[in-house]
Design a protein that fits this description.
The complex is a heterodimer of chains A (about 450) and B (about 425).
Chain A: E1 11-15, E2 21-26, E3 32-39, H1 53-60, H2 70-79, E4 83-88, E5 93-100, H3 104-116, H4 122-139, H5 143-156, H6 169-174, H7 177-187, E6 193-199, H8 203-214, E7 238-243, E8 249-257, H9 266-278, H10 283-290, E9 298-305, E10 308-318, H11 322-339, H12 343-360, H13 364-376, H14 387-392, H15 396-406, E11 413-418, H16 420-426, E12 432-437
Parallel strand pairs in A: 2-6, 7-11, 7-12
Antiparallel strand pairs in A: 1-2, 3-5, 3-6, 4-5, 8-10, 8-11, 9-10
Helix pairs in contact in A: 1-7, 3-8, 9-12, 9-15, 10-11, 11-15
Chain B: E1 8-11, E2 17-22, E3 28-35, H1 49-56, H2 68-75, E4 79-84, E5 89-96, H3 100-113, H4 118-137, H5 140-152, H6 166-171, H7 174-184, E6 190-196, H8 200-211, E7 234-240, E8 246-252, H9 260-272, H10 278-286, E9 292-297, E10 305-311, H11 318-335, H12 339-356, H13 360-374, H14 377-381, H15 383-388, H16 392-402, E11 408-415
Parallel strand pairs in B: 2-6, 7-11
Antiparallel strand pairs in B: 1-2, 3-5, 3-6, 4-5, 8-10, 8-11, 9-10
Helix pairs in contact in B: 1-4, 3-8, 9-12, 9-16, 10-11, 11-16
Chain lengths: ~450, ~425
């Protein structure tokens, strides 16, 4: 093989004088750098009465700092052709910038300002609150989003992973600027954060920029808050119907608990899932779309986080074929659970996952994210580089065990979005049916 | 920019154009096939056939039977997909480098001898109807956009949606598909872009072996642009179950080959790209009349549209959004833009070009698009120079020329009382 087996580029690291760990990886020929600052905790650390606070706080960080008001901050980033994104997830928040290499120092200064000295101006707080509330209202018109949100709630219930990252209408309406200021002061800090730079960047050249940008950001929590494990899905064996009377198409979701990020079960589970509902030739796509024309899209997937994970199947169909779609999906999941993938399916899934893996870490942004994840989830140095070997090492027995463990050995939580009466009938055999209005999910 | 990679070109005797962009960053290859056909080549009664046909291309040919395309590809560590626009249909595969010959065999098989059965057509028809229900019938913005395009265009095929009208999707026959395939899916109407870990000369030889015997195909019927002059603002008001009012405003623009097209790329950045753009600052953060605002100016082979969209709060007033939008547009056509805004737009357009050329797949896709729209990929690589030559005065002049009230089409949607 003429290419090295290594997928991640070589990394160099240092810790700033104030305690922020930094990793730098030079790669590619294009004069761009991807900067990713990952901070713990994520939205699972929202105070129980304030779901949405973490997401709201990081969004507001870009709306004003001691040295830069929102317009000046946007101008600093956008004038040079850079872009800034702010993301919140259950286990972390990320501030990401892609910049022309010659502006690396200025962009690090902007990030440093955002985390060290955000001012959370009261008028910006009010605007963001009004926008978020309007967004919740408009979410009612997005059936796929409603279905995802209802499933998250059905699986996790009142667990910290059970609420939407943005919270809900009631919680956001109750937010006060003091909540944001206190959260920023108390929960973030360099000791539970990491900065990753990937692209046209040299560690020695970058170091003084990083030291300058984050000088004075020190101390803070030594360890992130980790949510408890959950042993049983909250809505196991029950059906939730979200009523949207005018829809001509039903959104369908089925889900249960699965494994945590980084568990050894990952590889067998991924191979099994590729055969069941991952790729375009998977059983679910073949039975639902190719053979029966029931839907444009169907798939199954695992979502993994630090303290837990889920397995779910997602699709949609015209209202009157909802029951048929549910029957086909549950039949295929059961068949996989009982017998696992065939030898041919196993081999195809392995080639598929291993062959495409290099494409998942092709851009600077994806590499930065992969490097941050190694640290965030303690995945081990070889997690990325050995991925293909470990995928190819999965046996039929491993995949069958994954199938019997994760393919709904207990009845899944079921979510349907569309006209309630017809959908409740379609799913009545699957468990006790609860009908809710779409606004209850926002 | 061109120093970062080289493009090797060849044209087969049957007219198939082949472009190879080698690189050794990763042991993967991206193959794009651009067909010069989209919904602009359709006619009433057959709207949506380009997109429905895109689905049919995965359903078997002479050598590889039904559903074998993805089966073979995935077992070689690859994946495929496709999309259809108003102007073209694009198929792509990404796969491990050692599967190149296999993938060329698959692609040339379906270009040379696609099989179309009634059963396949019926199933794909149902799949496409679900896609339409997803993207249009149960999606508020999809509904508004469909109404708007039919308002902007009276005669040109851009009038109908790429996915087609539901009645037409239901009526398309197998014979229509076969005629469509013979006309538009021939080598003379296609360009192959292959980027990644390949040897250029060997690759062209492999392409010649796989595709060389496919007949060139007929001349492509010209698309007539009979669009009449617009003589005043057009409006449509919709009523539909929704949480908030909706608003789309469109102006007629030039075709991609018109010199103003690139000036409008600059204008788009200044007006609506980024948090600090004029419309975002004014409508969302200062006047707070919209929750979100955006603009879409996309290159088209025939005269296109400059489209503005706004997301409103449930108690929002589309009339206030319209008024604020028109004030911002007037500021540009009357007072022009600053040199700093112009430089910022150019910096962003250059960075955007760099970003899309960082991966093999990005290079094949971007350069293929440039060839489709600008006539050559070299013209795409000259874009930074051409953007650099755009002056502030020409941006102001373009705003005044295209963003005129008489050239406007407006759709507002008001929530139905029962919602």
């Amino acid at each position: 093989m003429k290419h090295a087996d290594r997928i991640l580029p070589a990394r160099a690291g240092f810790t700033t004088a104030d305690g922020l760990d930094v990793e730098v990886a030079r790669r590619g020929r294009v004069p761009l750098v991807s900067i990713r600052l990952v901070m713990q905790p994520g939205t699972a650390a929202d105070p129980p009465a304030r779901p949405g606070l973490v997401d709201f706080t990081v969004k507001l960080m870009r709306r004003g700092t001691r040295l830069l008001d929102a317009d000046a901050l946007n101008e600093a980033v956008e004038f040079v052709g850079a872009s800034l994104g702010v993301y919140a997830a259950e286990d972390f928040v990320a501030l990401a910038v892609t910049t022309p290499a010659e502006h690396l120092g200025e962009m690090l200064d902007v990030l440093g300002q955002m985390v060290r000295e955000p001012t959370f101006p009261p008028d910006e707080f009010d605007t963001e609150q009004a926008r978020t509330l309007a967004q919740f209202s408009n979410d009612v018109d997005d059936p796929g989003l409603l279905a995802d949100r209802a499933l998250q709630r059905a699986i996790w219930g009142s667990h910290p992973y059970g609420h939407d990252v943005a919270g809900n209408r009631v919680s956001v309406e109750a937010l006060r600027r003091e909540d944001v200021v206190a959260l920023h002061r108390d929960v973030f800090g360099p000791r539970i954060s990491r900065l990753v730079l990937v692209g046209d960047v040299d560690v020695h050249a970058a170091r003084p920029f990083v030291e300058r940008a984050f000088a004075g950001w020190r101390d803070g929590p030594a360890r992130p808050v980790v949510p408890p494990r959950l042993s049983q899905a909250a809505g196991e064996g029950r059906v939730v119907v979200v009523d949207r009377p005018n829809q001509t198409q039903a959104q369908v979701r089925l889900g249960s608990l699965a494994y945590c990020r980084g568990e050894p079960a990952t590889f067998a589970a991924q191979v099994m899932n590729a055969a069941l509902g991952g790729g375009f030739t998977s059983r679910l796509v073949r039975e639902v779309r190719v053979k029966r024309g029931l839907s444009y899209g169907v798939g199954s997937s695992f979502e993994t986080m630090r303290a837990g994970g889920s397995f779910s199947v997602s699709s949609f169909t015209k209202v009157k074929t909802t029951k048929l779609l549910l029957d086909v999906i549950l039949g295929e999941v059961a068949r996989m659970r009982e017998r696992g993938p065939t030898k041919a399916e196993l081999e195809k899934a392995q080639e598929y996952l291993a062959g495409l893996f290099p494409l998942r870490v092709e851009t600077n942004e994806a590499v930065a994210s992969a490097i941050a994840d190694l640290w965030l989830y303690s995945l081990g140095e070889d997690w990325v580089d050995d991925y293909r070997v470990r995928i190819r090492g999965v046996t039929r027995a491993d995949a069958a065990l994954a199938a019997s463990t994760f393919c709904f050995p207990r009845p899944p939580a079921v979510v349907l979005v569309g006209p309630a009466e017809a959908l409740a009938r379609a799913a009545e055999a699957l468990g006790e049916v609860t009908v809710m209005s779409a606004t209850e999910l926002t | 920019m061109p120093a970062l990679f080289r493009v090797h070109e060849a044209t087969l005797r049957n007219g198939l154009r082949v472009r190879v962009v080698p690189s050794t960053e990763a042991p993967v290859v991206s193959l794009y096939t651009f067909f010069g056909v989209g919904s602009r080549n359709e006619r009433p009664g057959l709207t949506g056939i380009s997109h429905l046909f895109e689905h049919m291309m995965f359903n078997g040919a002479a050598k590889y039977g039904a559903n074998q395309f993805d089966e073979v590809l995935e077992s070689h560590g690859g994946r495929s997909n496709a999309y259809t626009t108003h102007d073209q249909t694009v198929y792509y595969e990404e796969f491990a480098a050692d599967a190149l010959e296999q993938v060329l065999d698959l692609e040339s098989d379906r270009m040379g001898s696609l099989a179309i059965s009634d059963g396949m057509l019926e199933r794909e028809r149902e799949v496409v109807k679900e896609e339409r229900r997803l993207r249009v019938d149960n999606e508020v913005m999809g509904l508004i956009d469909e109404e708007l395009q039919a308002l902007v265009y009276q005669a040109h095929p851009y009038r109908w949606p790429v996915i087609g009208w539901m009645g037409d999707i239901e009526a398309i026959q197998r014979a229509d598909c076969e005629a469509y395939f013979r006309t538009y899916y021939a080598p003379g109407n296609a360009v192959l872009w292959i980027a990644g870990d390949v040897d250029p000369e060997a690759t062209v030889r492999k392409v010649r072996r796989a595709y060389g015997s496919i007949p060139r195909g007929p001349a492509i019927p010209a698309v007539v642009n009979a669009e009449p002059t617009q003589r005043g603002e057009r409006r449509s008001v919709l009523s539909h179950p929704a949480q908030a009012p909706g608003l789309l405003v469109a102006y007629r623009g030039p075709s991609v080959t018109h010199p103003d097209a690139l000036t409008l790329d600059v204008l788009e950045f200044i007006l609506a790209v980024g948090e600090g753009s004029r419309l975002n600052r004014r409508l969302v953060y200062e006047e707070k009349v919209a929750v979100d605002v955006g603009m879409d100016w996309s290159w088209r082979l025939d005269p296109g549209v400059l489209l503005f969209h706004a997301e409103l709060a449930p108690d929002g007033d589309p009339a206030l959004v319209e008024a604020a939008l028109y004030r911002e547009i007037a500021r540009i056509s009357e007072e022009g833009i600053t040199e700093r805004e112009l430089t910022k737009a150019k910096n962003n357009l250059r960075a955007h070009l760099m970003r899309e050329l960082t991966t093999s797949s990005g290079r094949a896709h971007a350069l293929g698009n440039y060839e489709s729209y600008l006539g050559s990929w070299r013209a795409g690589l000259r874009l930074p120079e051409r953007y650099a030559a755009v002056e502030a005065s020409s941006v102001r002049a373009a705003a005044a020329r295209y963003l005129r009230p008489s050239q406007r089409s407006v759709v507002t949607l008001f929530p139905e009382a029962s919602a």
